[in-house]
């Protein structure tokens, strides 16, 4: 069905179930019908844009250009930068870079500390979506939960569920043994003991169905990433550091079971984690973990339709409506009056062959190199701005913090 929406200040002010040239008399018209079908704009709730002192790996400009190409209308950045986002100065510096450089709307998580005033002051800053708990931060969970409860949980607690005491390192192809599923379950057990009914807790980049079910039974929302659906420990063994990621890739049978259970998740995130090729070329026990995928994430997800694991409705829920619900946004990517006019235009029948040399990301390597994927992002519209159109970036929007659209408690 053809639809025409009239957008003013990023918001839909009129929607018509037909396209008529008369609507263009008093408005600038952009016709995207030939590109494919419009979906609610994708949101990536877990990405590493690096920047600050890690800009040689990625920065807010290149990372969000890659995001727009991958169909994402908004991304939420992780705080494990240099300096770490655990103080107001680092936070303001990071947000300044996002405001100036980003091609998509944005949010950021902060790192916790044992200073309640410090955490509170950062949570009050526009653009802060919540607090990220890395394995080494599990000791702060009770403090952060208490802070968030006092605020009536208007912010999110997002958790990397691995217990640091259960983590060691192994050779390529065997890291699933040294960072076992038990490490995820022990971390979740601690989280379950400290949490209460009504706490807004999200468990990110889940690698297996045991962790998925355990987290869901606790009432937590859960996401996984494309690399846990496409890759396994066998890819880690053959590709080495290019397929090294935390938590690790697991055995093929675990990957296959996760694929069959993909509809149980609340969202798919990318965990886009860029590094320099020099870093990724180090010996396996020295190289950093992380897989970059923003440029091709849209195709990786759409391809799951053709693999018969997802429907188009599943894609909408996992990439847009689910992430929006997790962080507390409504009216995202719909077409009636009052909606935020952010859309991802896709062609389900087009194909790409992954060529990382063409990535907008600075990390021009990929474990998916040479893979054929069916389903392509043809345009990315952010509050009425056509940012990505075909194979090019058309215009840079004035990026907005996602907190502007969050439902206030």
UniProtKB/TrEMBL annotation:
* MF-aspect GO terms: allantoinase activity; metal ion binding
Q: Which residues form a coiled coil?
A: none
The Amidohydrolase-related domain is annotated at 37-386
* Co-factor(s): Zn(2+)
Q: Which UniProt keywords apply?
A: Hydrolase, Metal-binding
Q: Does the keyword Hydrolase feature in the UniProt annotation?
A: yes
Q: Name one GO biological process term.
A: purine nucleobase catabolic process
What the entry lists under InterPro entries is as follows: Amidohydro-rel, DHOase/Allantoinase_Hydrolase, Dihydroorotase_CS, Metal-dep_hydrolase_composite, Metal_Hydrolase
Q: Which GO terms describe its cellular component?
A: cytoplasm
Q: Which Pfam families does this entry report, sorted A to Z?
A: Amidohydro_1
The answer to whether UniProt assigns keyword Signal to this entry is: no
Q: Where are the transmembrane segments?
A: none
From the Swiss-Prot or TrEMBL record, give the protein name. Dihydroorotase, multifunctional complex type
Specify the species: Ignisphaera aggregans (strain DSM 17230 / JCM 13409 / AQ1.S1)
Name the lineage. Answer: Archaea, Thermoproteota, Thermoprotei, Desulfurococcales, Desulfurococcaceae
């Amino acid at each position: 069905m053809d639809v025409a929406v009239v957008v003013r200040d990023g918001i839909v002010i009129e929607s018509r179930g037909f396209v008529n040239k008369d609507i263009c008399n008093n408005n600038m018209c952009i016709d995207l019908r030939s590109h494919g079908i419009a979906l609610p704009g994708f949101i990536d709730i877990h990405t590493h844009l690096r920047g600050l002192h890690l800009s040689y790996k990625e920065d807010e400009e290149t990372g969000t250009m890659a995001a727009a190409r991958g169909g994402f209308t908004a991304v939420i950045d992780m705080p494990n930068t240099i300096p770490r986002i655990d103080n107001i100065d680092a936070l303001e510096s990071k947000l300044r870079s996002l405001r100036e450089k980003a091609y998509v709307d944005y949010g950021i998580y902060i790192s916790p500390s044992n200073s309640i005033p410090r955490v509170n002051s950062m949570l009050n800053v526009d653009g802060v979506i919540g607090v990220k708990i890395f394995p080494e931060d599990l000791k702060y969970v009770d403090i952060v939960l208490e802070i968030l409860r006092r605020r009536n949980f208007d912010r999110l607690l997002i958790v990397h569920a691995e217990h640091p005491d259960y983590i060691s390192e192994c050779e390529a192809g065997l890291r699933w043994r040294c960072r076992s599923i038990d490490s995820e379950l022990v971390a979740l057990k601690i989280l379950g003991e400290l949490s209460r009914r009504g706490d807004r807790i999200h468990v990110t980049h889940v690698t297996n169905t045991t962790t998925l079910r355990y987290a869901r039974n606790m009432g937590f929302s859960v996401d996984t990433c494309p690399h846990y659906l496409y890759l396994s420990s066998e890819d880690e063994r053959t590709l080495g550091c290019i397929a090294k990621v935390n938590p690790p890739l697991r055995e093929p049978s675990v990957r296959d079971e996760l694929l069959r259970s993909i509809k149980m998740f609340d969202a798919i995130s990318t965990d886009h984690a860029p590094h320099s090729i020099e870093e990724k070329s180090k010996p396996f026990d020295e190289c950093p973990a992380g897989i970059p995928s923003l440029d091709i994430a849209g195709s990786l997800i759409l391809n799951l339709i053709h693999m018969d694991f997802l429907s188009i409705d599943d894609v909408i829920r996992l990439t847009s409506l689910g992430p929006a619900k997790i962080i507390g946004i409504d009216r995202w990517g719909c077409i009636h009056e009052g909606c935020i006019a952010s859309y991802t235009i896709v062609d389900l029948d087009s194909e790409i062959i992954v060529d990382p040399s063409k990535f907008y990301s600075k990390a021009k390597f990929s474990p998916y190199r040479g893979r054929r994927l069916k389903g392509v992002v043809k345009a990315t519209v952010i509050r009425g701005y056509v940012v990505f159109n075909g194979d090019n970036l058309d215009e840079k929007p004035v990026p907005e913090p996602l907190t502007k659209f969050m439902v206030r408690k």
